[in-house]
Amino acid sequence: MRPMAQIAMVMNLDKCIGCHTCSVACKQAWTDRRGMEHVWFNNVETRPGPGYPRRYEDQERWRGGWQLNRRGALRLKAGGRLHKLAGIFADPGLPEIEDYYEPWTCEYRDLAGAPAPYDLDPMVERARRRASEQVRFAYEQTFMFYLPRICEHCLNPSCVTACPSGAMYKRAEDGIVLVDQDRCRGRRMCVTGCPYKKVYFNHATGKAEKCTLCHPRIEAGLPTVCSETCVGRLRYLGVILYDADRVTAAAETKDEKALYEAQLGVFLDPEDPAVRQACAAAGIPDDWTEAARRSPVHALISTYRVALPLHPEYRTLPMVWYIPPLSPVVDALSETGHDGEDADNLFAAIDTLRIPLAYLAELFTAGDTAPVRACLEKLAAMRSHMRALDLGEQPAPAIAAAAGMRPEEIEAMYRLLAVAEYEDRYVIPTAAVGDARRLEESALPDGCSLDFDGGPGMGGDGPFGRDAGRKLLPVVSVQNFHGLRRRQTADTPDEAKED
Ligand code: SF4
Ligand code: SF4
Q1: For site-directed labelling of 1, which of 140, 202, 320, 342 has its Cα 20 to 30 A away?
Q2: Could you give all domains of the chain from N- to C-terminal order, each with its CATH number?
């Protein structure tokens, strides 16, 4: 077992109102510069719809992420570095500026007669193919939700392997994926390599840039800008412990539909004494292990199992997970005059509304509807159970049992999903001085723990590219850390000054 720690995010899609506050806040903080006009480290997509850049999920065209070769080993879908170097002047997998379009421009002239957004969605195409002609897409026009997206800070990032300059790397101490601007040569293979199209090319500097998970704030124990500003309070941040030894095998799981379970199997239980011992031996600071125990992200992903990964079939093991929305089901029920909070109605509707279920499964579980149904049933049970309590009634134990939960679990999950305080939604350990120094020292001789011959990367360079894991930030001084925290949280320049 080689335990490692990763800062991960969960977003509750039932709460997203599509206001784009997160996108604008991130834009102002990080990409409000020349050459970055088309860049949205955080974007919010209306689904079903084409996404951003347009149809980025069509990997037959863009060839992002990983695939298995004939021997069942991982290889970049876009081909190896030699193959890519041969096509350096014309890469068909690279989005053009038209593919990014201008998300804020309302094309009034095109409103009538434009193709419906769901017709441009590759996931609708896949769901249609799977559903066959017998099933009509009757709910397409009433079924919609918002999908906020940032870089997934993947455990097995194809962008890092695609980079021929060793400029992309995954930090050993917290798993954040970054671009070393000094080393980037602007070859843009990371843009092609990322199946989520979350690396962007800055036309002014000629370098690649991407979401940094707001690492200066994370290091100071503060949530990311997009989380902090989210009006729906739908984002959760916390530590996940995982076993680096299991990453390659999980990503090489043959059956796409088994990739969700395989990724769950990579995560470690922070309550397990053996895991805690292994973490201490691996040099993971105690406050990180402690934070993993209190991690809302661990609770939602592994304890309650209501969060799912986005496109596990890309095999990058993404670390931003989503709680699928129950609201399309509730809305459909309410529109037909039924009680949208009645447990029996909800459970029956989840199964009846096969199209939302199939569509969500294309997004989160490579088409397997069973895990999506299980998540929605838990959310439906929570809704009915809590409504009974609100009305002063005794909730029927059968409601919780039908979703495979105990009433106390449902109530604890409700506290986290509905009424959690700031401190419960963001459990972020700080980059302490001693730990930063020790991690820096420990990272230098060995490199990244996944950086080994025969790993999921290409050739002997390891999955995170040449020199992966060797570029830690300079040690943060305590004074700087407190100063940074003060600056990040102050409302006025005076408040930001030293006491
Ligand atoms: Fe981020 Fe994963 Fe894309 Fe790399 S491959 S840019 S880590 S989403
Ligand atoms: Fe932008 Fe920070 Fe959110 Fe990344 S984590 S999308 S950099 S605000």
Answers
A1: 320
A2: 14-219 (3.30.70.20), 225-320 (3.30.70.20), 321-423 (1.10.3650.10), 447-496 (no CATH)
**Which atom of ligand 1 lies nearest, measured to the CA of 177?**
7
Look at residues 475, 469, 456 and name the one whose alpha carbon lies nearest to residue 178. Answer: 469
Going from the Cα of 488 to the center of ligand 2, the distance in angstroms, rounded, reads 15
**pLDDT > 70? residue 14:** yes
Which tokens in the block code for residue 496?
């930001």
**pLDDT tens across 163-207, in order?**
999 999 999 999 999 999 999 999 999 999 999 999 999 999 999
Amino acid at 325: P
The upper half-sphere exposure of residue 321, i.e. CA atoms within 13 Å in the direction of its Cβ, equals: 30
Contact 267, 241 (CB under 8 A): yes
Rounded-to-integer distance, Cα 300 and Cα 306, Å: 6
CB 365 near ligand 2, within 6 Å? no
- Residue-wise pLDDT tens digits, 137-154: 554 556 789 999 999 999
- pLDDT of res. 370: 95
User: How far is 211 from 49, CA to CA, in rounded Å?
Assistant: 23
**pLDDT at residue 113, as a whole number:** 56
Tokens of 382: 């929570």
